[in-house]
């Protein structure tokens, strides 16, 4: 598979823009040996902002692009980043107190003390430094190292210009070093491994006669707790790549639709990064990581979805009698490693003290006593160790660097397989030649089905069967994870063992396994730890397949039968609900059948009033104008967990998209759930417009938000804050965050109308309104694209407002681009 490879043409900037050129000298955190690598030991970048505050960063080298990124990201999100770096330096307890809430963007710690102990152990171990000492591909590529070097200098410049600012809650703003960025990268990589076990890792202590033993969670309950945590994190995504057989002009069309938090440090920051002749890429970056994670260049567009593969495993240890810190392997005792971890804490009187704790490790990984609310007691006979292969993975930026330079989907697959740095996500991509690629090439524990059968403990048998989490017998050497010849990292599957599919019609993923990537070619050749096969898919996956098949058959009410950029955007923002299409009519019939118009509730009965009519007239969508949607939402939040199943027709693996179906309206639990939903609405009319009770408030303005919960099977997923009686959902926790709809045409570069990017939150909610935050542009169907045909990666050469040039001699002057008189000059050719 090949595409024509052309050198980039001259680019023009014809946009609503404000120019800012940055030039800086070497700062103390930049190693002296690197000074000669950038002329004069300095950095230079040009930043132009387009509508919505999107930064376009251009420099002559990678250090310069990193410098511009660090400066721009910090300018928009300084306090968010400062909070992350406070966390990574294990100083939250010292500054904010040990009992305060931890930063949930960097792990599941229940309080600051647990967070600090976790990150202090990482600091003391020197593990990140050891990984950095390796050459690529195990360590960072030279270009990545330059990006990080520049990022740190740019961030630190913004810190200096902030004048010793202190952020809300008392978070200090301090300068950082390159190691802080790499520790952030490590924390991101371990998000769904060590990151979900922080409390259990930092609380693990050997048994003592004076301490009562904790009761272990029963295997069935443990499996359900782990499954619910791993399958329902506060991250998710949809991605659809359509190939030449499904597009209007024979090229490729991509939808990238991650569902990430709208608050905190796990947000996307939209950007374009350009080093002439070396890289020109646009898209969403996770704050603090100066490369595009989800985006496009002129030849390829790609996205990621949170994958179903389990990125960690557990080992059950048989302890040496009388010595709970030694364990047996093949009958021979091994002593656990121990590390005294000490962190400073602020006492109630304001003085600073220390908390010290001894944490233990094994050949497999650290000892823990719990994960995801599952209790794993350390007794006199048994302990558990967590093995997370992503703890040895800082290859992530290598992967994203290579993805940004790809020219076709074969190139995308090469980037993934040569770097093997992707943690816990799938990759979906398309190119100008009209190829569509799905690749679950990521870091996955090398636990084959045979190894799981042979080595699972009784707990492991249940956890692997129902949650796909391996718990292997740590007392047997032959139960260690395996290795493939094509794997860069021991203990992980090589790319050839992981599911990949290339097609000319389409591939998609909505956080289910690879099995239903395309219903015309079901994937089954992969180990169970990667995902289930021939099992019920989630409602969003079923909605995605249904929407794509409807589009290609011309039965979705949109013009034509194939995909364009506009029709892809329209499919997403149609806000169809798979669950409603399957169950709303039955729900309305059930409502009409309640004797005397009264539905049963958990406390008695309730008059259904206009509820039946609202459901009958409802359009089965979650647009801001949909009436009846809120009632069905509150109903389905209860029904989804009903046992036995609320469906009369069970799942049929021969009909994976349309089953299960037919609501069991005779089920007392289903009927009672409806009554409880009606009662819960209270003063909210059952036929109220969704936008009246699903909204956010920004700068005093109430903005309606469309979209719906995962359970409802709405592609445009929106998860509201906890329900407020009489008000509804008054904030968004997570959901559609960075949305890109992209068309790549055969034979020519992208042009006008080929791209639409919508970003929910470019800067914190409480940012000053001088540049309107595009918050909830994803929540308004009529939102304008943020990167349009004038976007330099799409067309043209340079122009636009004359940028300000800053030299090293005026670094400490006012460089706020908001003072530039060109800021609101509309030079957009549209």
Strand content: 15-25%
Strand arrangement across the biggest beta sheet:
24-22-21-11-10-9-8-3-2-1-36
Give the CA-based shape.
globular
Percent of residues in helices comes to 25-40%
Structural class: alpha+beta
Q: With helices defined by DSSP (H or I, 4 residues minimum), what is the helix count?
A: 19
| Total beta strand runs | 36
> Roughly how many Å is the radius of gyration?
27 Å
Low-confidence stretches: 1-41, 765-810, 812-830
Profile the largest sheet.
11 strands, mixed
> Span from first to last CA?
36 Å
**Average pLDDT:** 86
Compose a concise summary of this entry.
The protein is an alpha+beta fold. The chain has 19 helices and 36 strands. The two termini are 36 Å apart.
Give a written overview of the molecule.
This protein has 830 residues and is α+β, with helices and mostly antiparallel strands. The chain is 26% helix and 22% strand. The protein is built from 19 helices and 36 strands. The chain has an 11-stranded mixed sheet. Strands 6, 7, 25, 32, 33, 34 and 35 form a 7-stranded antiparallel sheet that branches. Strands 12, 13, 14, 17, 20 and 23 form a 6-stranded mixed sheet that branches. Helix 8 packs parallel to helix 12, helix 15 runs antiparallel to helix 16 and helix 17 (629-639) packs across helix 18 (668-681). 57% of the residues are buried. The model is unreliable at 1-41, 765-810 and 812-830 (pLDDT under 50).
Characteristic terms for this protein:
830 residues; alpha+beta; eleven-stranded mixed β-sheet; seven-stranded antiparallel β-sheet; 19 helices; 26% helix; 22% strand; disordered N terminus; disordered C terminus
């Amino acid at each position: 598979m090949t595409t024509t490879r052309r050198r980039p043409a001259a680019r023009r900037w014809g946009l609503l823009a404000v120019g800012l050129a940055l030039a800086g000298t070497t700062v103390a955190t930049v190693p002296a040996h690197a000074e000669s690598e950038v002329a004069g030991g300095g950095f230079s970048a040009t930043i132009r902002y387009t509508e919505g505050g999107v930064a376009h960063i251009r420099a002559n080298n990678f250090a310069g692009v990193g410098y511009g990124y660090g400066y721009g990201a910090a300018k928009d999100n300084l306090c968010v980043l400062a909070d992350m770096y406070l966390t990574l330096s294990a100083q939250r307890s010292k500054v904010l107190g040990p009992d305060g809430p931890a930063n949930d963007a960097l792990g599941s710690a229940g309080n600051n003390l647990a967070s600090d102990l976790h990150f202090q152990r990482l600091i003391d171990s020197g593990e990140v430094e050891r990984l950095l000492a390796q050459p690529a591909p195990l360590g960072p590529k030279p270009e990545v190292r330059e990006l990080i070097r520049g990022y740190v200098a740019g961030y630190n410049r913004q810190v200096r210009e902030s004048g010793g600012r202190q952020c809300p809650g008392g978070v200090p703003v301090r300068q950082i070093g390159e190691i802080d960025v790499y520790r952030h990268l490590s924390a991101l990589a371990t998000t769904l491994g060590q990151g979900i076990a922080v409390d259990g890792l930092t609380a693990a202590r050997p048994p003592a006669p004076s301490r009562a033993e904790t009761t272990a969670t029963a295997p069935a309950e443990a499996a359900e707790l782990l499954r619910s945590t791993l399958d329902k994190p506060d991250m998710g995504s949809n991605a659809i790549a359509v190939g030449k057989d499904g597009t209007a002009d024979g090229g490729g069309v991509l939808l990238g639709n991650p569902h990430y938090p709208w608050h905190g440090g796990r947000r996307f920051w939209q950007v374009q990064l350009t080093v002439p002749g070396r890289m020109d890429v646009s898209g969403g970056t996770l704050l603090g990581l100066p490369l595009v994670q989800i985006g496009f260049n002129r030849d390829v567009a790609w996205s990621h979805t949170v994958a179903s593969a389990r990125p960690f495993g557990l080992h059950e240890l048989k302890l040496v009698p009388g010595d709970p810190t030694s364990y047996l392997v093949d009958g021979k005792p091994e002593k656990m490693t121990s590390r005294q971890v000490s962190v400073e804490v602020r006492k109630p009187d304001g003085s600073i003290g220390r908390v010290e704790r001894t944490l233990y490790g094994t050949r497999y990984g650290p000892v823990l006593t719990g994960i995801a609310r599952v209790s794993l007691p350390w007794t006199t006979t048994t302990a558990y160790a967590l093995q997370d292969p992503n703890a040895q993975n800082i290859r992530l930026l290598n992967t994203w660097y290579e993805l940004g330079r790809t020219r076709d989907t074969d190139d995308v697959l090469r980037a993934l397989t040569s770097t093997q740095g992707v943690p816990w996500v799938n990759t979906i991509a398309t190119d100008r030649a009209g190829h569509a690629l799905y690749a679950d090439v990521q870091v996955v524990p090398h636990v084959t089905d045979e190894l799981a059968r042979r080595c699972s403990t009784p707990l492991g048998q249940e956890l692997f069967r129902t949650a796909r989490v391996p718990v292997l017998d740590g007392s047997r050497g032959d139960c260690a994870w395996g290795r493939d010849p094509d794997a860069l990292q021991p203990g992980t599957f090589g790319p050839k063992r992981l599911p990949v599919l290339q097609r000319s019609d389409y591939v998609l993923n909505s956080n289910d396994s690879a099995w239903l990537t395309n219903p015309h070619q079901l994937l089954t050749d992969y180990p169970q730890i990667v995902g289930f096969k021939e099992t019920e898919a989630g409602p969003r996956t079923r909605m995605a397949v249904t929407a794509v098949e409807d589009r290609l058959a011309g039965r979705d009410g949109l013009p034509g039968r194939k995909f364009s950029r506009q029709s892809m955007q329209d499919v997403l923002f149609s806000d169809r609900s798979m669950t409603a299409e399957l169950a709303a009519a039955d729900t309305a019939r059930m409502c009409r059948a309640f004797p005397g118009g009264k539905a049963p509730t958990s406390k008695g009965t309730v008059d259904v009033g206009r509820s039946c009519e609202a459901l009958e007239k409802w359009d089965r969508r979650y647009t801001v104008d949909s009436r009846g949607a809120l009632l069905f939402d509150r109903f389905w939040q209860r029904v989804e967990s009903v046992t036995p199943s609320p469906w009369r027709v069970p799942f049929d693996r021969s009909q994976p998209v349309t089953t299960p179906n037919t609501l069991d309206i005779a089920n007392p639990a289903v009927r009672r759930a409806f009554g409880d939903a009606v009662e819960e609405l209270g003063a909210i009319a059952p036929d109220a417009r969704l936008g009246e009770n699903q909204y956010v408030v920004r700068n005093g303005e109430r903005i309606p938000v469309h979209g719906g919960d995962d359970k409802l099977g709405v592609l445009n997923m929106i998860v509201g804050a906890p329900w407020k009686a009489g008000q509804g959902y008054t904030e968004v926790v997570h959901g559609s965050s960075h949305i890109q709809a992209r068309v790549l045409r055969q034979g020519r570069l992208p042009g006008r109308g080929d791209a639409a990017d919508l970003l929910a939150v470019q800067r914190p909610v409480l940012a000053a309104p001088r540049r309107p935050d595009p918050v909830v542009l994803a929540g308004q169907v009529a939102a304008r694209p943020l990167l349009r045909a004038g976007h330099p990666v799409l067309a043209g050469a340079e122009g636009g407002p004359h940028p300000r040039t800053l030299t090293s001699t005026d670094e400490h002057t006012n460089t706020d681009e908001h003072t530039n008189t060109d800021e609101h000059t509309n030079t957009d050719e549209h």
